[in-house]
Amino acid sequence: MRRRFPAALLLASLLTLMPTTSLLNAAHAREADVPQRLCQIDWRKGRWHVKQLIRCAEERWSVPGGVAMALYVANRESNYRPTAFNSYSGASGIFQHLRRYWPDRADTFGFDGWSAFNARANIMVTMRMVHRMGSWSHWGF
Hints:
By secondary structure, this protein is an all-alpha fold. It is about 50% helix and about 0% strand.
């Protein structure tokens, strides 16, 4: 545990010093590689657009509790901020996926190599994952 704390502290301080635009640029660098056939909403325009993307994704892959639950979880986890990061756990993005689980989840649900800070990837992976699992159990519901 003692080894992780300094590393987390260092990462948190680096992220604090990094401009938000750098995180966003890194987060959507791969977005151009994948055609946006579904939910063509530019999440980078702000919180309202992030919510619209969640609504659209939930419409495609219905999840328990519907859009209200999806919006509630996203608000609770990140306040709809794509750059949200928990320096203690490493949870990242809109739905706060843990760093150790994100690569496998992203790969499983069609976003291999995408950043958890990319709101489109984070939302689509979450909706597909919750739809398949049939619950929000990874988020405590």
